[in-house]
Amino acid sequence: MTTVIPAIVASSATDSLALGTIERRDVGAADVRIDIRWAGICHSDIHTVQGDWGPQHYPLTVGHEIAGTVAEVGSEVTKFKVGDRVGVGCLVNSCGECANCAAGSEQYCLKGAIGTYGARDLDGTITQGGYSTEVIVTESFVLRVPEAIPYEKAAPLLCAGITTYSPLRHWNAGPGKRVAVVGLGGLGHMAVKIAHAMGAEVTVLSRSLSKKDDALGLGADHYFATEDPETFRSLRSSFDLIINSVSAAVDIDAYLKLLALDGTLVNVGAPSEPMPVNAGTLIGARRSFAGSNIGGIAETQEMLDFCAEHGIAPEVEITSADQINEAWARVLASDVRYRFVIDVETLKA
Ligand SMILES: [Zn+2]
Ligand SMILES: [Zn+2]
Q: Which residue ranges does the record assign to the Enoyl reductase (ER) domain (predicted)?
């Protein structure tokens, strides 16, 4: 048995999105049914639908930044009850048995973590995302959204928040650490807020000076324009950690030279083209070039609690379901400060 619900649907890689319907499974014993209230728009949604990361199963509903309330729980659910404010991020399942799952790193499941949309779930169906009125998720992949986080701002934490929180934690951002954030978009602006709250000295590296005032307001201590070649000379060997949030290929070797001894540059953006690195740049100061993919479920809960405790939330612009194509066009044009969130009530009318 399935239930048909309203959703925003992509019917191909090239068609505009349209209002339509999808099917949801019945609530199983370990499942939670979530009445979706807010759904964030992530650049990955667009990459996926457009086929930039490989062929997709259409029709497809995307969205992996979900905030809503529990509407129904299965008979074995213990962590949630009807009415709880909850979230779902980029993952809805994993094998639960491999070494990485056992370590709480479900995103690195050796059998392949199940993404919130466009992935083949353990039951064989293709997962459908949060641009819809409800979702059914096994309780172990549901997050608790603290009341201190404004409801309409919670959704983007589930992807943009955890994607930046996890590497900042892993590489010990904190007092005495010099952290640079490359790119000030959905991911970058969260990296600035979180690194600042962790106590690090934060520098934003953005193409032009146009976002300088914003960056300083978000908590950055310094700001430099990367279109100015002097930036790469004056900041050489200046940072312990660089978070690169840009999803297009950049001259990564030039950024690696900005790392101090033992520094690490972590890519969280995923350009489709390779980025050449000179071994000499790494050897010259024992530098590391790394990557990081979202976070595990326990760490995502830790991030939500951290944001609640420190009063951190994304800067959002609310949009409606019938404006989705305009919103996507503005995301592609980097014309949003800093995350769109769909008011899912507009999908229910
Ligand atoms: Zn995302
Ligand atoms: Zn696993």
A: 12-342
Which-ligand-closest: CA of 104? Answer: 2
CA distances from 204 to 18, 187, 344 (A): 37, 12, 33
CA distances from 156 to 40, 150, 169, 298 (A): 5, 11, 18, 17
Give the integer Cα–Cα distance in Å for 123 and 199. Answer: 44
Taking the centre of ligand 2 as the mean of its atom positions, its distance from the CA of residue 108, in whole angstroms, is 7
- Conformation bin of residue 183: beta by default, left when phi > 0, alpha when psi is -120 to 50: left
Q: pLDDT tier at 281 (50, 70, 90 boundaries)?
A: very high
pLDDT score recorded for residue 267? 97
* Helix axes of 186-198 and 160-170: crossing angle, nearest 10 degrees: 40
Those residues with Cβ within 8 angstroms of residue 227's Cβ, 6 or more apart along the chain or in another chain: 207, 208
Predicted pLDDT at 16: 96
**Residue 165 C-alpha to ligand 2 middle, in angstroms?**
22
What distance in angstroms lies between residue 191's CA and the mean position of ligand 1's atoms? 14
Q: Which ligand is nearest to the CA of 102?
A: 2
Helices (H), 208-343: 212-218, 229-234, 252-256, 279-283, 297-310, 324-332
User: What's phi and psi for 86, nearest 5 deg?
Assistant: -135, 170
Q: Evaluate the CA torsion angle 132, 136, 137, 143 in order and state its sign.
A: positive
The tens digit of pLDDT for each residue in 219-247 reads 999 999 999 999 999 999 999 999 999 98
Neighbours of ion ligand 2 (CB under 5 A): 94-95, 98, 101, 109
- What single-letter amino acid sits at 60? L
Amino acid identity of residue 148, one-letter, is: A
CA of 175 to the centre of ligand 1 (A): 28
Domains and CATH numbers, the chain: 2-159+295-348 (3.90.180.10), 161-291 (3.40.50.720)
Is the Cβ–Cβ distance between 317 and 331 less than 8 Å? no
Please, which pLDDT band fits residue 89 given cuts at 50, 70 and 90? very high
Give residue 173's Cα distance to chain centre: 19
